[in-house]
Amino acid sequence: MEQTFIMIKPDGVQRGLIGEIISRFEKKGFYLKGLKLITVDRPFAEKHYADLSAKPFFSGLVDYIISGPVVAMVWEGKNVVTTGRKIIGATNPAQSEPGTIRGDFAIDIGRNVIHGSDSVESATKEIALWFPEGPVAWQNSLHSWIYE
Ligand code: RTP
């Protein structure tokens, strides 16, 4: 089944939003298949955001991501990449709808609380980068109550 990489950024951790964010993904019915609290160094953050290296905000973005621990997660479920992005909301919180994570908890694009893979291809790359040991293999016992 499809998997995505979700990261609670340092501002989300510092503001005590870990439980709230995990709860939203859990209550939707997605399965948590990887979870770690980790502080990454500059080369690692630059690798994660390599596609944005030419952007003017790149160095500020890297400074932000390495400024404290982040929560790295793998979530699994049908259409989890696209639905995960909807749960997160638009990149700029000024445009994120209320009811989304960024719409409810963020104001500034440079402090937007959470990251989610933007495609299945990015998810595969990001999961390999953050979880070289691989996700955890387990089967949720409620599976048939969530899927037809
Ligand atoms: P993310 O990767 O964090 O889920 O965000 P995204 O796909 O929605 O947005 P992307 O364009 O990939 O940008 C990655 C992160 O860079 C920061 N950003 N700052 N100052 C700016 O104009 C600006 N634009 C983007 C945001 O933290 C964004 O989430």
From TrEMBL:
Record-annotated active site: H115
GO terms assigned for molecular function: ATP binding; nucleoside diphosphate kinase activity
Listed EC numbers: 2.7.4.6
Source organism, top-level taxon: Eukaryota
Broad EC category: transferase
Sites where the protein binds ATP: K9, F57, R85, T91, R102, N112
Keywords, sorted A to Z: ATP-binding, Kinase, Nucleotide-binding, Transferase
Cofactor(s) annotated in UniProt: Mg(2+)
Swiss-Prot/TrEMBL catalytic activity: a ribonucleoside 5'-diphosphate + ATP = a ribonucleoside 5'-triphosphate + ADP; a 2'-deoxyribonucleoside 5'-diphosphate + ATP = a 2'-deoxyribonucleoside 5'-triphosphate + ADP
PROSITE patterns for the chain: NDPK, NDPK_LIKE
SUPFAM superfamilies: Nucleoside diphosphate kinase, NDK
Sequence similarity: Belongs to the NDK family.
UniProt xrefs under HAMAP family: NDP_kinase
Name listed for the protein in its UniProt record: Nucleoside diphosphate kinase
